[in-house]
Amino acid sequence: MRIAVYLFDGAEELDWAGPYEILGVWRQLAEQADDAPTVDLVTVARQAGPVTCAKGLRVLPDRTWEDLGPIDLLIYPGGVGTRAHLGDESVRTWLRDLRASDTLLVSVCTGALVFADAGLLDGRPATTHWGSLDRLAELGRDIEVRREDRFVDDGDIVTAAGVSAGIDAALHLVARLDGVDRAREVRRFVQYDPEPPV
Q: Which domain holds residue 102?
């Protein structure tokens, strides 16, 4: 299982770091289990060099589009940086090519807007950050906007609502790809028991 987490200037930190943590723990636990799949987890950017995320965190991705090679799963975060991706034909083509090669595409937050802009959500259920739900509907054709869902799994495309919902979607992916027991093991490892104090 080869997984890439896409990074770009203006990516919301928790959108990608939350799923990266969950999938990274899955990789760690899988390495200790005889019956688990092999998990290869990398970060990827369009070009070489550091990216600066939405809150200022600078990150050096592992790969570029050019040297990424085949992947099984892509995490596409949201954040203010996604606005520049809308209407970008090279982004649209990259995503369509990944979809055509049977890559499981997963968006977090406003990453779903980019999927919609590429035509990948037409006629499908999807969600995004609550502040962008109307925009999601405008970017595609006949998108069934799921306003209350934390994430939507439509088989070959999974969309998650805003920011922290990416953690839920990632746990769902572990359950889908390696079983509920493994996902529970990951959840316990990261001590993900949401009880917000406010």
A: 2-189
The residues annotated with a catalytic role in the active site are: 109
Give me the number of domains the chain comprises. 1
Q: Determine contact, residues 95/23, Cβ cutoff 8 Å.
A: no
Asked if the structure places residue 52 within a domain, the reply is yes
**196: in domain:** no
CATH code, 102? 3.40.50.880
Partners of residue 106 on adjacent β-strands: 75, 158
**Any domain includes 194:** no
For 50-63, letters b (16+ CB in 10 Å) and e give ebebbeeeebebee
User: What's the helix, strand, coil split of the chain in %, to 5?
Assistant: 40, 20, 40
Does 198 fall in a domain?
Answer: no
pLDDT digits (tens, 9 = 90+) for 5-31: 999 999 999 999 999 999 999 999 998
Helices (H), the chain: 13-31, 89-100, 111-117, 133-139, 165-178, 180-189
In order of 21, 83, 87, 169, the CA distances from 129 in angstroms are: 20, 14, 20, 13
Alpha-carbon gap, residue 48 to 60, rounded angstroms: 8
Dihedral sign for Cα 140, 143, 145, 151, please: negative
User: How do residues 90-106 score in pLDDT, each as one tens digit?
Assistant: 999 999 999 999 999 99
